[in-house]
Amino acid sequence: MKHPHLFAAHDDDAECRPHLPGFRSWRGIYLVVLVCFVAYVVALTVFTRVYS
Amino acid sequence: MNLWDYVVLVGATLAIALYGMWRTRGARDLSTYLKGDAHTGWATIGLSVMATQASAITFLSTPGQGYESGLAFVQNYFGMPIALILVAAVFVPLYRRLNVYTAYEFLGRRFDTKTRVLGALLFLVQRGLAAGITIYAPAIIVSTVLGWSLTWTVVLSGLVVIVYTVMGGSGAVTLTQKHQMTIILAGMAVAFVILVMKLPGHLGVGDALHVAGEMGRLQAIDFSLDPDRRYTIWSGILGGLFLSLSYFGTDQSQVQRYLAGGSVRDSRLGLMFNAVLKIPMQFFILLLGALVFVFYQFERPPVFFNEAEWSRRVDSAQGAPLRALEERQATLHAEKTGAVDAWLAARRGDDAAAEAVAREAMLAAQARSEALRQEAKQALFAIDPKIKTKDSDFVFITFVLDHLPHGVIGLLLTVIFAAALSSSSSELNALGTTTAMDLYRGVVNAGATEAHYVRASKLLTMVWGVVAVAFALLLRVAENLIEQINIIGSLFYGVVLGLFLVAFFFRRVGGTAVFFAAIAAELLVLTGFFTLEIGYLWYNLIGCALCVAFSLMLHAVLGRRDEVAPLPGG
Q1: For B467-495, what is each residue's pLDDT tens digit?
Q2: Do A1 and B564 touch (CB under 8 A)?
């Protein structure tokens, strides 16, 4: 048995939008966070190669 | 420590606490007391979440870890960004929509009261014990180094945090954390800059990094699949994801922080703030430790970084072998400094063969220094087997006290106390809230007024504060309990996460199945812990997997008897 109120999609609500310049949805923000994470891993890998 | 250091330490610590209390003096309704000001912005929430996670031990131990074993520990945080995205996308909207005070209240709405109480009790056991450690761990280090009374350090820091957390509630915690975290970040940045400036004049930052790298302190990433390796990118992403999901998604001390804002947007952006900044922050704290290591290639370090303990033994009747070690260390250190300089000079030349020879000589000198440090620890152990020979927690504070200017020493001690107070306040706030809302209002007395629950929350927060301080004082005679508390946390975290994962992703499973599944999983985890030889961190994964699997099996067996209870008004 499902809880429609509990699990209904909610991201379209005005209150939930990111309201950040350049971002229309949260997916864009999550993508940027993931890109940052990948960039950190790449940068740390290069750092390790250069100095170790 | 001189007068200026004390002025900075006491002034900044008390000013932040008093400001937090003054700004939140009107918090009388339940929502404001337990959730704080609805206008709290995402940056404040982000700093509050960061301050809750970063305890004083983070700023004492992490540089020591960078000094001793390098940057590899940063990989432990690799699962965090992914976990925070999941928490922001899945957990936050549900908590917000149901307008819950605690994460366990959500379990009550989704399943039933008994599951809510079970989740709350599992949290209270592990976090209640951890609250004592959060107060004790920095107090033991700071009091040892500065010669303060441990009892008074524990009691006074405990008193400050109890007063402003009880008086101002969640709003005071969030507000003070914002300022505490600002001081912490500024203090660490100042320490980093001064450290770089204190490196020898002939040594550029690039040279310093090459020295640290050659000595094995800059390996940040390890792609090895060897399970025996402590930190690898794989264990960091998988283990870190799992731990961060448990911590940020189900631990009330964090949930209460990101529910402090007025909207889903503020909560999510506060979490994303941490998802982006946490890895660089940990990297720089570890790098600080690695650069302290380089600094001590040119400045003679203590033989043993817990200098108070060392001095006491050196001055005793059994101190002769320790004094001999000090003399040997002076000679070895001079040789090593020469070897490092020789390698740097060879590196600047074009002769690869000469550089290789100089590198071998430098690494051999370092190996002799390490061997002497081990010898010193064994000598201490031989004198008194009760001595803690792990001294890496004392590396950073020793550097601060011995080499930073007055005023900055006060600032860095403020950083340590700010970190201790900020994480303690979140814990006490969460413990009081969970006890008041999930146990008292949820089970004992459901029909009282809001003012009554505010009073109950204040009283229970105070009780937890007193329990935490008492526990911290008790730890004085039982130091090995610290590791035991970490083990206890791992034994419960997995099952709590399992409860929430079933709630989110297996929507047909009801309260009866998940409740008995969680109990069975917890019993199996405890049985496994006492009978099997498995590293305790694995019990996070095992507990969660068992809870989810048992829930699905029990639901299949119970069928209609495991119906999901209707939501109030739903």
Answers
A1: 999 988 887 655 555 556 667 777 888 89
A2: yes
CA distance B276 to chain A (A): 6
Give the span between the Cα atoms of B231 and B221, in whole angstroms. 9
Whether the per-residue pLDDT at B388 is higher than 60: the answer is yes
pLDDT, tens only, B44-79: 999 999 999 888 888 888 899 999 989 999 998 999
Touching check for B561 and chain A: CB below 8 Å? Answer: no
d(CA B96, CA A51): 46
Q: Using an 8 Å CB-CB cutoff, list chain B residues near A25.
A: none
Q: With an 8 Å Cβ cutoff, are B74 and A44 in contact?
A: yes
Mutation target to probe the A interface, by most A beta carbons within 10 A, among B107, B264, B567 is: B264
What ipTM was assigned to the predicted interfaces of this complex?
Answer: 0.88
* C-beta atoms of A48 and B85 within 8 A: no
Q: Is B563 a residue whose pLDDT tops 70? A: no
Could you tell me the end-to-end alpha-carbon distance of chain B, in angstroms, rounded to an integer?
A: 62
- What pLDDT shows up at residue A4? 45
The reported pLDDT for the residue numbered B476 is 62
The answer to whether the Cβ–Cβ distance between A1 and B216 falls below 8 Å is no
Residue type, B320: A
Q: What whole-number distance in Å separates Cα of residue B104 and Cα of residue B293?
A: 45
**Is the minimum CB–CB distance between B98 and chain A shorter than 8 Å?**
yes
How far, in Å, CA of B508 to CA of B502, rounded? 9
CA A14 vs CA A19, A24, B46, B261: distances in Å: 9, 11, 22, 16
CB contact under 8 A, A48 and B93: no
Residues 6+ positions from B33 with CB-CB distance below 8 Å: B27, B169, B170, B171, B454, B457, B458
CB B193 within 8 A of CB B183: no
Q: Would you give the distance in Å from CA B546 to the centre of its chain?
A: 27
Q: Which helix (H) or strand (E) holds B142?
A: helix B113-146
Sequence letter at residue B158:
G
Distance, CA of B216 to CA of B362 (rounded, Å): 12
Which of B221-230, B331-340, B381-390, B414-423 has the largest mean confidence?
Answer: B331-340
Tell me what pLDDT residue B481 has.
52
Chain B residues within 8 A of A18 when measuring between CB atoms: 265, 268-269
Spatial contact of B270 and B42, defined as CB atoms under 8 Å apart: yes
Question: Mean pLDDT, chain B, as a whole number?
Answer: 89
